[in-house]
Write a structure and sequence with these properties.
The strands form four sheets. This protein has a six-stranded parallel β-sheet with strand order 3-2-1-4-5-6, with helices on both faces. Strands 14-13-12-15-16-17 form a six-stranded parallel β-sheet, with helices on both faces. Helix content is 42%, strand content 18%. It is of the alpha/beta class.
Length: 594
C-alpha cells in the first residue's frame, strides 16, 4: 500500500511546487519525439485534457523536421522547445523540474534510455512513458523510474496488419474481470459467448462503430471458449490452400537472371548471323544440313579448313564466319563472367527465389515489419521480405526464421516480381517512406488486380484519398493506432485493449466515477451513447464486475465503469466522471471592528 501511495504523494508535491514557482496548478507533461507518434500523442492529450483546462504540454522536437510527416510542432496550445540533444540542459529548458510526466517517443531504444537517465538528474520522481522496440529493457527502466511504462507501438499495431493481410479481424485478446475476451465476427462465435457488438463492417465504404442496435453489429466482443480465433483459422486455411512450387519455372527464372539483357541480345543477334551465314555457306558448297552445321561450327570456332580451290562464294562465307567467330568468343567469355557475378549478387540479395504462391510479401523490415513477419511465421504462413538495405533491423530475425530477404527497391516491378507478388496472398507495405509504400502498392495491384494490399501511410487524410482513388481498401497508421495508449499511460490511465477497425480505433478502458461528478447520481443508462460509448460492465467499489447490469441502477462515487468507446466519446465520458473543478479560494469578508 505504501508503494502504491508514493506516486500520488510525488504528484501532490509537484503540484505544490508548481504553485510556488509560477502559480500554475495545471499538470505539466513533456513529450519528446520527431515523428507522427508524437503528433498523435499530443493530439490525444489535447482532446482529453486541454478542454478541461487541466494540462500544459511542452513538446521537444529537433531543430529541423526530419521528414514531411507531422510531429506536432504546429499544434495550437503546445509549448515547443527545439533541441537536437535530450540532455539535462534541454530538459531544464522544457521545464521538466516539477513536471508530472515525460514521454520519450524516439525510435532509438538506447537513445531513449540515455534520455531517461538525463531526466532523472533533473526530476527524479515523475511519470515516465518510453517507446521501445525491445520491451525486454522494461525492467531496467522500471529500476530507474518506478512509476513508468514501456510501450511498443510496433507490437500494438502489428496484429492489425497481420489480420488485414489474412482477411480477418484484428486478433485482439484481453483479460478483464476474470474473463478472457476477444474480437471476432458474429458468425464465428456462439450466441451465448457474445458480450456486445462492436461494429457493422458489411459496407466497407461506411463502417458503423458501436451501432445503436447491438444486433446490427457483425463484429463483436466475445468470451473465449477454447476455439481458435479468426486470424489463426485464416492462417490454417491459407496453409492448406498453398499450391506446390513449380521447379521448371524456378529453372527458367534462374537462367533468365544469369546475364544482363544487353549481353543476351548481343549473343542472340550474333548467333542468328552465324546461322544465316552457315546456311548460305552450306548452300554454296552443296552440303546437306548436318555437314553444313559441322562446317559452320568448325569454321566459326576454330577458323580452320582454308582451301584456295573453293568457289568465291564459299571463300567469302568462310571469311565472314571466321570474323563472327572472333566476336563470339569474347561474348561467350562475357556471358560466363557476367553470369557468375550476377548469380553471386542475386544469391546475396535474394533475387534468385523459387516461384511461390499463397505467401505474404512484407515490404520493410523496420520495427513494424519485423513484428508483422514474426507473427505471420508464428501462424505458419510463408513470408518473403523486401528491404532496401542488406542488414535491416529485422534481418537477423528473418535469417533465424528462414524468411527469404530480397534486397532491393520495392517501388520497382522487378523487385516485386522476384518475390512472386503475382501469386501471393497479400502484400503488406510497412516501410517508413510513404512514396515508396504507395508505389509498391500500386505496382503490386497492377501485377495482380485481386491482390490484398495492406498499406502503411503516415498521413491519415492522404490515406483516405488513396483508398477512394485507387480502391486500396486497407491502409493503416501505426502512430494513430498506438497514440491513445501512450497518452493514457502518461496520464496513468490503464487502457485495457485497443480494437482497430479499419482506420478507426476503439478503446476498452475502466473509468472511475468521482464524487460530485456529472455522472454521480445518474442511472447507468446515461453512460452509453450510440456510435460513441458502450457499457460493458459495472462494479461498486470493492466488488466484482457485473457484466449484465441493470440500466436503471444509480451510479455512485467510487463506481467503476468498463466501457468500449471511440476516442471522442471516451474523452467526454472521462470529463463527466471527473471531479468538479475547484472554485478559486476567495478571502473571507473582513468584519467591521466594534
Amino acid at each position: 500500500m505504501r508503494h502504491m501511495a508514493e506516486p500520488l504523494l510525488d504528484r501532490a508535491r509537484r503540484a505544490g511546487r508548481r504553485l510556488r514557482v509560477n502559480g500554475d496548478a495545471r499538470a505539466h507533461y513533456v513529450i519528446c519525439g520527431r515523428d507522427a507518434l508524437a503528433y498523435w500523442v499530443v493530439r490525444a492529450l489535447l482532446a482529453t485534457e486541454l478542454q478541461a483546462g487541466r494540462v500544459r504540454i511542452t513538446l521537444v522536437v529537433p531543430e529541423r523536421p526530419r521528414s514531411d510527416e507531422p510531429d506536432g510542432r504546429d499544434l495550437q496550445g503546445v509549448e515547443v522547445v527545439r533541441a537536437d540533444r535530450l540532455d539535462e540542459v534541454t530538459f531544464r529548458r522544457a521545464g521538466l523540474a516539477g513536471a508530472d510526466g515525460l514521454a520519450l517517443l524516439h525510435q532509438d531504444d538506447v537513445g531513449n534510455m540515455h534520455a531517461a537517465l538525463c531526466a532523472q538528474e533533473v526530476e527524479p520522481r515523475l511519470r515516465l512513458v518510453v517507446r521501445m522496440f525491445n520491451t525486454g529493457l522494461a525492467n531496467g527502466v522500471r529500476q530507474i523510474f518506478p512509476d513508468s511504462a514501456v510501450l511498443s507501438d510496433a507490437s500494438m499495431a502489428a496484429p492489425a496488419f497481420v489480420a488485414a493481410a489474412l482477411g480477418e479481424v484484428a486478433p485482439t485478446h484481453f483479460r478483464h474481470g476474470g474473463r478472457t475476451l476477444y474480437v471476432a465476427r458474429r458468425d464465428d462465435v456462439r450466441p451465448p459467448d457474445v458480450v456486445c457488438g462492436v461494429a457493422d463492417t458489411r459496407d466497407a465504404q461506411q463502417v458503423r462503430l458501436l451501432p445503436a442496435d447491438d444486433r446490427a453489429a457483425d463484429l463483436v466482443i466475445a468470451e473465449a471458449t477454447g476455439t481458435p480465433p479468426g486470424t489463426e483459422l485464416a492462417a490454417r486455411r491459407l496453409r492448406r490452400a498453398r499450391r506446390r512450387r513449380r521447379p521448371l519455372t524456378v529453372l527458367l527464372r534462374a537462367v533468365r537472371s544469369f546475364a544482363t539483357r544487353k549481353i543476351g541480345v548481343a549473343v542472340i543477334v550474333l548467333l542468328a548471323v552465324i546461322g544465316v551465314l552457315g546456311s548460305l555457306n552450306g548452300y554454296a558448297a552443296h552440303e546437306d544440313w548436318a555437314d553444313s552445321l559441322y562446317l559452320t561450327l568448325v569454321t566459326t570456332l576454330t577458323g580452320q579448313d582454308p582451301n584456295p580451290d573453293k568457289s568465291a562464294a564459299e571463300q567469302v562465307m568462310q571469311v565472314v564466319l571466321n570474323l563472327a567467330g572472333l566476336a563470339l568468343i569474347p561474348l561467350i567469355t562475357a556471358v560466363v563472367v557476367d553470369g557468375i557475378v550476377n548469380a553471386r549478387l542475386a544469391l546475396h540479395s535474394g533475387r534468385i527465389q523459387p516461384e511461390r504462391s499463397g505467401h505474404v510479401v512484407v515490404v520493410g523490415l523496420g520495427n513494424v515489419g519485423t513484428r508483422v513477419m514474426a507473427q505471420l511465421c508464428d501462424f505458419g504462413v510463408e513470408v518473403v521480405a523486401i528491404d532496401k538495405v542488406p542488414e535491416p533491423r529485422g534481418g537477423a530475425l528473418a535469417r533465424r526464421l528462414g524468411v527469404p530477404l530480397i534486397v532491393g527497391d520495392a517501388a520497382l516491378e522487378e523487385t516485386l516480381q522476384s518475390a512472386s507478388v503475382g501469386g501471393c496472398q497479400a502484400l503488406v507495405v510497412v516501410s517508413t517512406d510513404d512514396e515508396t509504400n504507395l508505389q509498391a502498392a500500386l505496382i503490386g495491384r497492377a501485377v495482380n488486380p485481386e491482390l490484398q494490399v495492406v498499406l502503411r501511410l503516415f498521413d491519415g487524410h492522404f490515406a483516405e484519398r488513396i483508398q477512394q482513388a485507387f480502391g486500396i481498401g486497407v491502409s493503416r497508421s501505426v502512430s494513430y493506432l498506438a497514440a491513445f495508449s501512450f497518452s493514457a499511460a502518461l496520464l496513468d490511465r490503464a487502457v485495457i485493449a485497443t480494437i482497430p477497425v479499419g482506420r478507426h480505433a476503439l478503446l476498452v478502458t475502466e473509468v472511475s466515477v468521482a464524487a460530485g461528478s456529472s455522472l454521480d447520481g445518474r442511472p447507468l443508462a446515461a453512460v452509453g451513447r450510440a456510435e460513441s460509448v458502450r457499457l460493458l460492465a459495472h462494479a461498486r467499489a470493492g466488488q466484482r464486475l457485473d457484466w449484465a447490469p441493470d440500466a436503471r441502477l444509480v451510479i455512485v462515487a467510487g463506481d467503476r465503469l468498463t466501457v468500449v468507446a471511440r476516442r471522442a466519446g471516451l474523452n467526454a465520458l472521462l470529463r463527466e466522471a471527473a471531479p468538479p473543478p475547484e472554485d478559486p479560494v476567495t478571502p473571507a469578508p473582513r468584519q467591521p471592528e466594534e
